[in-house]
Each structure stands twice: as structure tokens, then as C-alpha cells.
Amino acid sequence: MSKFNVKDIAKKAAPILNQIQKSKVSNGISGGMMAAMPIILLGAFAALFLNLPIPVWKSFIAFSGIAHALNVAITFSTNFLAVVFVVTIACSYAKQYKEDPVVPALIALVCFFIVTPFTTNKGVTTITMQWLGAAGIFSAIIISLVSTRIYIYIKQKGFTIKMPESVPPVVASSFSSLIPAFAAIIVFLTVSTVFSSTHFGTMHQFIYNFIQTPLQGVGGNIVSVVILWTLAQLLWFAGIHGTLVIYSVVLPIFTAMDAMQLSAYSAGQALPNITGRAFVSTYTMSGSAIGFAILMLFVARSKQYKTLGKLTAVPALFGISEPLVFGTPLVFNFRFFIPFVFMNGINLTIAYVLTVIGIVPRVAGMAPMSGMPIILNGLMEGSWKIAALQVALALLSMLVWYPFFRKADNEAYKIEQKTLAE
């Protein structure tokens, strides 16, 4: 394919991709999930400290009561993520419409618990934790979006109680929210009643069976993951932030998978998934181009690539790829097309195969942290073997990138020498 054709395709695709990336629904979900990051990290670190494979440490935390405290933290973070997301996504989605997010978030929370099953025994009402964590995340997403959209639509259409101007703004605002709030709550009361008369019993069970489980099956398929992250690199090559575009579609799937993973890890149970956001983040740091940055830093003959190595190597080791992508540049740079586009897929395939055959353990599902360096990131995922595989993949990256880098470096060196001679 010629350079012109690739640019032409990118130009035609860019408006569609930008529309997906900038959609209110997509930004509402991704913004809400990012807002919940402190809670996600709390659960991740609590699980990490609870499961450190050091006998002395395990005895100490059990004796001191720290283990109980860590379990409580996990219960109301990792195992409570659906509740957290229903609030944060509703807030984020309401902000897309320039609405005050507090009331929509409260309404979404009420709607979520309306469709959540509970039991009453001798005057004590109990809500099971089953749907408050990973299993209820897709329900939380749908409920927060639908209830917030109902609220905003009715309010913007003017179907509200209008108070006289003499009434204080706080009171007037409360009354103007009544009809939109009632409408959203009535919708989910109806939904809850309808599902209670079916064999599913609850909306949560229906969504889990027909939406969440099939989508997680797609997210758990290494072929689809490799295709998605190769596509992400193709978008990067065309100058589009491919990671953001792909995550705008798959972030809910991967987040639910990681939540299940981390919940099982916290409980000392077998980890249910291999892939997920943590898996991809662990094995594709800096677009799998760390080896290229290291080559430029230590092997380059030309001043051009030596300078680029100094500028890009450290950020790359900390998972920051933008200096490498746009500084080299790798965008529309056909001499680096093959390693730049396909190295992610190679790394993910190798990591998946080694995980399946048991050479490395499954990642624990820790939330990816921006700026977390290679090796430390792997250790946080539960094993030194994962960190060792990161190093091995970085070395493999050097081998794959080397012939492409060497040719470009030699060309740059000859040009520099010719310039000096003149």
C-alpha cells in the first residue's frame, strides 16, 4: 500500500474515530472509570499487601489485625466497584451535558439498588454482595447512563416544577429535580418488577448472562486482543491516539475482567482470566518499543538517534510512549512500520502462550498506573516471573527493532558525515 493511500485512509477514518472518542457516552464511561481510580488502587494495594508471599509478613498481619483491615478495604473497593461506578459514571455523564452531577449520581445509585435483590428476615434486610462488585459492573454502566439520560432529557425539555423567583435557588433546584428524578426511578421500579416475574429474577442476572459474559468472552480471546492492539498501533501510525480509541470501546469489558481477577486474587482463589487491561498494560509498555529506545541510547552511531535515545529511553521505561512516537517520529514513518505496528501482537501472543502453559502466572489484575516502570509493574502483578518476562520481551523488542533501526541509523550517520565533510 502506498504512502498516499495510507494517509488517505487515515484522513477518511479520523472523523469517525474522533466521533467515537468524543461521544458523550464514551467519555461518560471512561471519565467515570478514571474518577474511580483512587478506589480501584486502594483495592489493588490492599490485595497486594494481603497476598505478599512472605510467611513472616502473613503471620504478622494476621496477628496484628492488619489482615482484617485489608479485607475490609477490599470489600468496599474491589468488591464494591459496581456501586462506585454507578456514581462516578453518572457524574461524568451528567457533566457531558453541563448538568450538576450530584442529583443524577444519587438517582443512579437509588436505581441501582432498586434492581438489586435483597432479603428480609425477622426485620433485618440484607443485600447480597454478589452484584455490588465485578458481576454488577455492566448493570452499573447501563443504569447510570439510562437514569442520567432520562433525568437530563426531562429536565432540558422543561417538564419540571418551577418555583417563584422569590424562592431560594437551592430550594428551587430541588423542586425542579423532582419530576425528572421520579421518572427515572419509576422506570427502574418497573424494570425490577418485570424481571422479578421472569426466570432471571433480576436485571443484574439478565445483563450478566446476555451482555457481560459474552463480551468478557471476546475480551478473553487472545486473537481478538491481538487484533485490537494491532489496530491500535495502526491508528498510532496514522497519528491517531489508538489506545484511547480502542479503550473507548473495550474499557468496560477489561475493567470488569480485572475486577474479577483482583477479587479472586484477594481471596486467594484461582484467577479466572488471562487477558484484561492489566495483561495488555503489563506486556505492551510504550507500544512494545522500549527496545527501540534502548537501541538508540546505547547503539546509535548518528547524533540524530543518539539524541532521540537520550530523550525517549527513560520515559519509555516508565511506560510513556509519546516522546518516542512523535519525537522519532514513528507516525507515517514507513521504515519502522513493521516493528511499530506488529510488536504489540508478538508480545501479547508470547505472554499468553507462556501463561497458558504455566511458565508465568496470570496477572493479578492490578489497575495500571501511569508512570509505573517496567519490572516494578510486573512485580505488582503478583510474581517476579511476570517482571522477568517483561525484561525478556524488552530484549526481544531490541532484536526485532534492530535491523530497521540499524538501516535508519546508518543512513542518518552517512548524511551527518557528508554534511561535516562539506
Explain what you see:
Strand 1 and strand 2 form a beta hairpin. The protein has 2 domains: 20-205, no CATH class; 223-421, no CATH class. The model has no long low-confidence stretch (mean pLDDT 89). Strands 1-2 form a two-stranded antiparallel ribbon. It is an all-alpha fold and 422 residues long. The chain is 71% helix and 2% strand.
The first-to-last residue Cα distance is 37 Å
Given helix and strand content, the structural type is: mainly alpha
How many H/I helices? 20
Largest sheet: 2 strands, antiparallel
Radius of gyration: 25 Å
The portion of residues assigned to helices is over 70%
Whole-number mean pLDDT: 89
Which residues sit in consecutive blocks of at least 5 with pLDDT less than 50? none
User: How many strands appear in the DSSP assignment?
Assistant: 2
The coarse overall form would be globular
Number of domains: 2
Strand content: under 5%
List the helices and strands in order.
Answer: HHHHHHHEEHHHHHHHHHHHHH
Strand order of the largest sheet: 1-2
